[in-house]
Structures are given as structure tokens and as C-alpha cells.
Amino acid sequence: MKKLISKTAFVTGGSRGIGAAIVTKLAQQGAAVAFTYQKSGAKAEALVEQIIKDGGSAIAIEADSAGPEALTDAVNKAAQQLGKIDILVNNAGVAYNKNISDFSLQEFDHTMAVNVRAVFTATQTALLHMPDGGRIITIGSCLATRITSGGWGLYSTSKAALIGFTKAVARDLGPRKIAVNIVHPGPVDTDMNPAAGDHADYQRANMAIPKFGEGKDIADIVAYLAGPAGSYITGAGFDVDGGTNA
Prior knowledge:
Rossmann fold, globular, 7 helices, alpha/beta
């Protein structure tokens, strides 16, 4: 049964990987979905076409999450076309991996702009269009709470910040019955982190279930939190990581 009929959703970074899986799942559940993309225009167009072919509703909006004005415009454009935003999924993210001594200030600023400031910007803007009882779901990382190898100083910092943001905003929006949660993926088979990649065996060695997840594994918990069953869950974090952080 489709549980998101009459609902609308806005997903940042939805053209590929985990984002595309989330967009697809929400559309399959009946939501009209708008999503942003930056460089993957062909993939975004193909995703929209597939969702429409399958009987769903989707629109793609080009926007760089590092730019607050562009992201604000994208959220407002989506709300204008969809009529409202019931569900916000903060998915867009970037990752650099290098020793803390080797990071540039530009890399720090870019990481925080996409992984933290964009979440603030999209949330604040979406709230202008979100009815009471809405949902805000942010994609964090298992590396927010446990680091198993070096090089993740910036990425882990940015994702850890989202835990505090989620808990605080859950308190702010509780009176409006808007549920705010964060999902922490572990290793997921994507272009950025393929299951056959050079570092895949190391990651599997740290899991209780030694296999990479799929995008749908993350999309399933997002859809659960976005649906009726998620109405009484807020300020919570969900590890979907094959037991990486067990």
C-alpha cells in the first residue's frame, strides 16, 4: 500500500547513489518528489523519466548545495510547483579523505557549506512551506560517531554536527508535530564507494554483516520515517551500517 499519497517531498542531491534510491522510493510510495542535482543532469533527467513512466511524479532542479541562494531558490521553486513540502530529505554531501595536516581552508569551507550549512538552509526554507506534521530527515554517516581509519577529520566533524542539529531542531519543531531524525549509512555500494573498490575489504572487515548495503536499504528507513509510522519518532538517529558501529 502506498503510504505517501498526497504528500510532497524535496530531496537534495537526488540524481544518483543513495539520493536517487530515496527519490525513487518516495515516489513509489505515492509522494510527488522534487530533487536537486548539480553535475549529473543526464542522470537526473533519466530518473525523472523513469519515475513518470512507472506512474509517479518527479521534477529535477539544478542547484549547487554549496550556494545558499541557489538552494533557497530550489526549495522555493519546488514548493511553488508542488504546492507545499511535507517531507524534506537533506541528502547532498561531499567527502574528502586525507590527513588533517593536509586539508586546505577551502576544503574545510566547502565541506561545511555542503554538509552542514546546506542542511540549515534547506531546513529553514522548507519550513516556510511545510504543514504541521511534516518530516525532516537528514542523511548523516556512521563516521559521525566512530572512526575506524584516518583521514576523515572534516567529514566526520560535519556529520557529527548534524546529530546536534537534529536533536535541537526536533525540540524546536515538536509543537508543530514535525518529526526530525537522522539516518547514518555505513558502506553503501555507490559510484563514490563501490563494493569492489580498493578500500572495500577493509570496510567489510569492520562490519558485523560483512557486505555493502544498497541504496534501497537507506531509502527504506527514510520512507518509514516519512510515513505514518514515523509520526512519534523524533530527535533520533538510525544506524543502517551492517553493524559497523555495533
